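User: Let's play a game. I give you a shape written as tokens, and you guess the letters that built it. Ready? Here's round one.
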């Protein structure tokens, strides 16, 4: 099985969904513009930071869209780069929009800091591609399955907070609904369909839900046979409508999360997803696979 250290061409997915960018994508877009302006003038991050009285690490975070956009800093950088007034007003207007409160304020008490960025990116993406070998991806989980997964990871946790986390997960799934449903492409290890989460009634309902979801034109689910998925950790690749925004790879870790945006880092993961898609059963076979597993493992009296 290949690892993300490989390389190769990616499958190009495009299409205008009419979706408007949210704060997270706008923050990335401003960051990309600032980086390109700095590089066009041959200014290092350290020099840019010194010129406006901040550290090089803050310039890195601003350009990566990982922090809010202080308008004073953005304005000073635009002045440093000699931006004309028209472009200056455009970038500052984008920065104002990017600093708007996120969509998830109502759930702030159950969102870890390292996960908040992913929620914004997921919401702003037009195409979401993911590989999963542990659980059904959150966007395809039923409420009971989601509750069982969350209870496992927060054993002994407060019941009210668990229900808040379940509600958040169900809220995230709205991005698959009209009027601008995102394209979701999942490669899932076969073991996920056979690993019991909750009771058999929960598992049967989850499999039946997957059977219904794969009928949607914007949802693709491929099942990867046991032999091919070994040694590959779950990851997600997010693509955005704006041509200036890079793809983002999200690597979820035990106590943190990693986000990759440089093409040299993202390209191996796109290639890996393409390879996993080739090794997986074709999407057209998924309904039959689900029916077989329901009949043999998760049938109920």
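Assistant: Ready! My guess for every position:
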């Amino acid at each position: 099985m290949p690892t993300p250290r490989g390389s190769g061409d990616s499958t190009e997915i495009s299409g205008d969904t009419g979706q408007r960018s949210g704060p997270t994508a706008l923050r990335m877009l401003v960051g990309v513009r600032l980086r390109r302006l700095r590089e066009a003038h041959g200014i290092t991050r350290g020099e840019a930071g010194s010129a406006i009285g901040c550290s090089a690490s803050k310039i890195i975070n601003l350009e990566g869209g990982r922090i809010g956009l202080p308008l004073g800093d953005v304005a000073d950088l635009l002045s440093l780069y000699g931006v004309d007034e028209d472009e200056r007003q455009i970038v500052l207007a984008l920065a104002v929009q990017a600093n708007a409160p996120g969509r998830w304020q109502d759930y702030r008490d159950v969102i870890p800091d390292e996960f908040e960025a992913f929620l914004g990116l997921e919401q702003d993406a037009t195409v979401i591609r993911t590989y999963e070998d542990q659980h059904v991806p959150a966007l395809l989980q039923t409420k009971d399955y989601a509750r069982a997964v969350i209870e496992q990871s927060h054993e002994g946790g407060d019941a009210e907070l668990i229900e808040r986390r379940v509600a958040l997960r169900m809220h995230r799934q709205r991005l698959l609904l009209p009027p601008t449903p995102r394209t979701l492409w999942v490669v899932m290890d076969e073991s996920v369909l056979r690993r019991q989460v909750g009771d058999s009634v929960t598992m049967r309902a989850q499999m039946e839900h997957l059977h219904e979801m794969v009928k949607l034109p914007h949802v693709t689910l491929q099942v990867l046979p046991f032999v091919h998925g070994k040694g590959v950790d779950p990851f997600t690749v997010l693509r955005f409508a704006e041509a200036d925004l890079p793809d983002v790879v999200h690597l979820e870790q035990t106590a943190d999360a990693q986000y990759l945006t440089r093409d040299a880092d993202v390209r191996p993961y796109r290639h890996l997803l393409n390879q996993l898609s080739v090794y997986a059963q074709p999407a057209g076979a998924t309904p039959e696979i689900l029916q077989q597993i329901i009949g043999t493992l998760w049938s109920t009296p």
